[in-house]
Each structure stands twice: as C-alpha cells, then as structure tokens.
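In full, the data:

***
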Amino acid sequence: MNKRKLWTLRYTLINVTYFAAFCTVHAYAAVFLLDSGFSNTEIGVVLAAANILSALFQPLVAAVIDRRGFFTNRNVMMICAGVIAGGAVILLFAGSVKLVVFVVFTLMYMVQFTYMPVMTALNFEYQRGGAKIFYGLARGLGSAGFAVTSAIIGTVVENEGVGVLLYVTIAVMALHAVIVYFFRLPQKTENIDKTEKTEYIDNNDVNSSEEKTKKETSLSNSKKKGNESSSIPEFIRSYPAFMLMLAATVFLFFTHNMLNDYLIQILRPLGGGESEMGIATFLAAVLELPTMAVITLVSKKVSMKLMLVVAGVSFTVKAVIMLLANNIPVAYVSQAMQMLAYAVFIPAAAYYVSENIAEHDQVKGQAFVTSCFTLAGVFSSLVCGIVLDILGVVEMLVIGVIVSCVGTLLIVCAMKMSGRNTKKQKMFSNV
C-alpha cells in the first residue's frame, strides 16, 4: 500500500469513528432525551444551549491551538473524545436525574460540534507536513460511517433500549482516541508547521491562476482598499446580496434542523419508531455522498448562484413532502430530497463565498455562513420544541414549511441581486 493510500485510510478511520459517535449523540438526541423524561420544550432548551456554547467555544479552541503549545489539533481531539466518552459513562449511572442528564448531555453535544473543525484542520496540518491525504474521500466515507451506524443502531435501540447509544458512544470514542494517538507525522516532519497558522482550505479545491485572476477582476470595484479585512459594518455595506443570502440561510436551516432534531416525533404518528428513524437518517446521509462528490465538477459548468436556488427550492419541497406524508415511505421520499437540498447548499455556499467575496474578507464570509447554521439551530430547537408540546407535529411542520418558503424566496432574491452586482462589476472592470 502506497503512502497516500495509507495516510488516507488512517484519516478515514478518524472520520468514520467520529461520525459514528456523531450519529449516536446528535441524530438520536431526541430519542435519548425523551426516554430520560424530557419534554419537547426541554429538549429544545438542551439543543439550543449546546449550539450556543459550541459557537462560543469554537473560536476559543482555535485560538488556543494557534498558540502551538500542548493543545495541538491532535491533542485537543483526544481530549474531546475523552470528554464525550466520559460523559457517556456518567449518563449510564445518572438514571433519571434530569439535571445531571441536562448538563452532561449538553456538554457532550457541544464538545462534539466544537471539535469538528479541529478534525478538518488536522488534515491540512498533516498535508503541509508531508502526509498525502485524499481529504474528500476520507470525509465522504466519514458520512458513510454515519449512515451505516444510523441504519443499524435504530433497530438495536428499538429492541434493546436507549442505553445502547451510550455503550456505542463509549466504544467508538475510545477507538477514535486510540487511532488519533497513533496518527503521527514522522519525527523529521512533525515540526515543519510550528510557525504556520492553521488553515481551513481544501487543497483539492484550490483555484487555478486563471480563475484567481478572474475573481480578482470581478472584485476590483470593491470598496475596501488593500488587503486589510473589512470591519463588520463595512462588510455589511459591501456585500448586500450576501447578507440577504445569510438571512435566507437562517430561514432554510430553521426547517432543516427541525426535520433532523425532531424526526422521531414526526415519524411516530405515521407508525414509525427507532428502526424507521434509522433508515430515514441513513437515506439522507448516504444520498449526500454522490452530490458532494460531483459538486466540484458541476461548479465548473453550472453557476453556484443557480445551485443555491436549486438547494433553496429543494429544502422547501422536502418540508412540504414531510407535511403531506401519511405513511413512512412518503417520509423516506422527503428524506431523499437531502441530496438536492443540504448536499448542494453546503458546498455551493462555500464556492459562492469564494467567488463573490473579496480575498481579504473570505474568512469572515465563511464564518458568517457557519454562524447562520448555529443561529438557525438555536431558534429551531427552542421554537419547535414549544410548538410540539402546545400544538403538535402537524402544526410544527406547517410552521416549518412557511419558514422554508420565506427562505427560498430570500435566496432567489439574493442570487438575482448578486447577478446584477456581478454585471455592474464587469462593466466597471471594462472601463
């Protein structure tokens, strides 16, 4: 086995074990918390708190890692895996003590979200150190690990109880920590990156010099001079279409998170249980893979503005199908729309930022998109939990459809505005 295949295999195992635990902790959060005696409103509070804390801790963790002391990407990952496994052990003995479950589960949920970008950063740190890793393949197989885990764990939980989720989390996180521990660069190269700042850029997606020239030309009319990053007010004024797109993102991901976080509550009135939830989650995850695998090729022929519109419409279609579903197979059809919604939106949004935001504002642009995901998760968790308890599943789905329709309308308007801005920039650049 050549070195690239070996490094990719080892990094793939890191991804697979991480996303297997991501499934047991995140995808089955509502299942576990309902069994622990939490109401839908209380579940919403737990998920919202975890989302807020992860948004606060991610930049803090990144800042600590950038200091290049003991807290390297690799060490932070092992610490986080230990915290999650330790939390699962505590929950095994917590019984029905809701306060303990609330605090510990929130911590586990938050920590797992927090160290996802650290795992991505580890890849690029090692690539700069000489390790040849096929990142796209490893990340895709990580999602496959999530899908397979979901397909299996649903039936096991239904037959054996939710305690299985904790045992699997402990085992997978322990294995994850061991794999990360032995994932080391050779001694002669592990100090190469000491003075470099961690980057979150996929080397396989670096633009050609010709594409860079085109982007620089299209952005030549930017108000910001030089390479200094814009302040927040300057950024907002400079990119009105992007700000509208961010608003659309919050609305679209409100409904997206609703369908993910409260899936078990949606499926039970249709006659489904944990097994059907496992299959539904498997379908959504596994169908993301082909779309994300070809998005780079598609980006060379199809405008990312169009792809974002397609994703926006697909989010709403997915919500409408789930609202109209009167049996489990129709709910599966709704989940299958994931391949045109989430799987298109995530890479398309990243490409959109790369193509339409000035280079000195790129990091800020990507960070804004990620922040919108978190903001949507907070609102969705709180609002939908309360609606479920007071009104019911159908009413929650109706609200989700309305919110998603607003998001779709906003994304269409944002992309039209962005198209007009691009035309103006081309006119000025030709003067």
In short: Confidence is low (pLDDT under 50) at residues 189-226, 425-431.
